[in-house]
Amino acid sequence: MLVVQHPATAIPMASPSPLAERSPFDIKVIRPYFGAVMVRIRGALDEDSAAELASVLSTWAHRKFPVLVLDLSEVDFLDSAGLSVLAGIHVRTVRESTTLRIVTGDNRVVRRALAGSGLDHALNLSPLPSGWERATEIPN
How far apart are CA 42 and CA 74, in angstroms? Predict the structure, then answer.
């Protein structure tokens, strides 16, 4: 019997227990200048948090900002549910002619997951745009 392992499950994990090292999930929405919005995600982007992120992204996508930046530099775990949300927002931004930028920083966990899924070729991975460090958080 031939068993074929899905490529996403074939990626070796750096630590034996990723649950032990995960940070609490947190989303911050930041807008430093008119016309652009940044969503900063921190912690594990997985099955438990993907629906919350999809809801936040849907809310901000409806507002028709020309630039949407997703900062994943502080995500410490990314699974297929999180990748699915990223793929979905990519499709939506293309359909609505919005620029989507994905900021990964030096985050090897995120880069590895994106590369393993092939999304690294579809998404616009970029360094943090200048001026974002002075951004202020938008109240919920």
Answer: 5
Cα–Cα nearest to 94, from 133, 129, 124? 124
Rounded to two decimals, the pTM is: 0.75
**Closest by alpha carbon to 40, among 24, 51, 29, 55?**
29
Degrees (nearest 5) of the Cα angle 10, 12, 17? 120
Of 128, 106, 102, whose CA–CA distance to 117 is shortest? 102
Give 102's contacts (C-beta < 8 A, 6+ positions apart).
69, 70, 72, 86, 114, 123, 124, 125, 126
Q: What does the pLDDT look like over 3-24, one tens digit per residue?
A: 444 444 444 444 444 455 667 8
How many CA atoms lie within 13 Å of 48's alpha carbon, on the beta-carbon side?
8
Are 70 and 37 in contact, with CB atoms under 8 Å apart?
no
